[in-house]
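Collaborator request, handled under Task 6.
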Amino acid sequence: MPWVETPSLSFTARHEASQSDDALAVLEDLEQHRAHLEQLLPRVPGSVTVILHDSPVQLYFASPLLALTRRLASRAARRYMVGWYRKGEVHTLSGPALRELSAGPDSERALLLSPRRVYTALAIGTNTPLLPPPARPGALAHLLREPWLADGAAQHFSGQVQFMRAAIATRLRGGPVRFPPGRRDAGLLGGTVFDLLHGERGERACVRLATHPASSKRAALEEAFGRPPAEVARAWQDHLARLATPAPAVSPAL
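Structure tokens returned to the collaborator:
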């Protein structure tokens, strides 16, 4: 099947010819999301090419680092780690591939927000000197050392967290999680740190945590929440328990 390009004001989607309707829906959503991010961030990337891959293998071939980080993640987190970015590009699975990967209605809704999530990660990196792009060795090392920060911001600002209750519950049944989430859990639980911060101190506090590097993760958390990280950790564990509580119309993630 030949690949075609579909343009919009700020993006160009590259996709299979049979998926034009899905591509148009992605572009429309990204334009709206970009307009929202413009109200939060000093700079938001434009002229971005969104490559919609038809299979995980195709995606991992284009983004080898994604394949590595998924391998290190928990099973519950891997389902939602379906995209990567570089300067001027967003790579993610196509709509049909995302729907096939889903584990129920809420899982599908979270997965269909993946283009938003990956574009948000690109936007956060554009405003943060310690993160890619560009993919300098130091920036990649920082991204891999503290993945909860960039990935959590991307999950939060893309609106994914509210649809991940069942996946969070699945992960919690697998054993305790550390605060802030490590590499194993960042792809699923990073956004819950920002969700807690948003509830306590608002969206601007989330923007500052995502875009203003601190000397350490302890310093970043203490500055963001205005209290010792040990207290934040206890509040976060309670927040996770609330998020994992079954809600109407939430399907289990296996």
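The cover message to the collaborator said: "The mean pLDDT is 91. The chain is about 55% helix and 10% strand. Please let us know whether this matches your experimental observations."
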